């Protein structure tokens, strides 16, 4: 009997709960009905400083001065809005770019009820959701990393060194051979012979130092000194070459330190992705800047919203860009409405239906599919980060000084040795001439006495 006392209480609670649900549904219905019946146009704020015109682009009719919108974001909004059949018009309000303006300023305008909604490539964030209501995201969630495809060439083994470094190294090899030949050929049988034999031996000796395989024995300490210094230079050069070639043949990992990353200016990703990472960030403000930065090697990778990355891949299909990684670190793009607006929920429902029936996919293919558009002709070929002569100027300076010093000492020695031989020969000739004179005088004296 005691349990029966709780039945009226339970019935009362159920009635209260049903009343609250009915009141909420009625309130939502009345708000929607008011929106449909008051005949007032929706004031939609649209930014005119979007980085990617494929997503949202604001146009002004020069004849009527009326604003128009095109792009993927607008088509999604228009399809969802028309499906709801509110029966009200839309007034497009341009939000022009000025110094310091950002999407946060645009959201502030909606939160202050100056405008009814905002559309564009607006990222959903927790902080923004405090002030406005977002619809469900109509794009893929997360970020993407885009890089330029690795250069595939049969001559990739030449890429680690710049052209000036290759030429300088070859010249130094030949100069080394000449210095060793000049020092050794007078006394060393291995550097003697016909002209062709001497040239062949000299060139082979010089380039065999690259793999430390020279077999000719050196007799002069000057030659040994020059070769020792040059072998050290070759060791540093070959080690650097091997390391650089290995990096060119290996897929670069984005997690490496001090990587140069391109990022859209004023992007909310700066805090969401790069807060605890040691990246050098280069801000980019146009889709042309994105492409040029990758092509010219100014950045190693670009990290941005996945839809931005898809747009780049669609706009520049011949650029050999690749999406190499994705991460669910952002919430995608959504449409912005005033806090408490019933349209946010109704538009979210319609976006969900569009995702299920394939409408969103069709619109994405329309605007973001890979087209055959050619790139601008002023885009230059990428310049890989390679070893150049400037970085090795100290080593070549040391080697050139050692070679020049050894060559100078050898030349002075030859001159001194040559002068000594000349003096000896002159003394011999003097002795011979003096002896001939004495003999001639003696013979003449003998003839006179006779």
From TrEMBL:
Family annotation (InterPro entries): Glu/Gly-bd, Ionotropic_Glu_rcpt, Iontro_rcpt_C
Main subcellular localisation: membrane
GO-annotated molecular function: ligand-gated monoatomic ion channel activity
Keywords on record: Glycoprotein, Ion channel, Ion transport, Ligand-gated ion channel, Membrane, Receptor, Signal, Transmembrane, Transmembrane helix, Transport
Residue intervals of the Ionotropic glutamate receptor C-terminal domain: 43-370
UniProt cross-references to SMART domains, sorted A to Z: PBPe
Coiled-coil positions: none
GO cellular component: membrane
Domain of life: Eukaryota
Membrane topology: Multi-pass membrane protein
Pfam families reported for this sequence: Lig_chan, Lig_chan-Glu_bd
Membrane spanning residue stretches: 165-183, 225-249, 395-420
Residues making up the signal peptide according to the UniProt record: 1-25
Name this polypeptide is given: Ionotropic glutamate receptor C-terminal domain-containing protein
Annotated compartments: Membrane
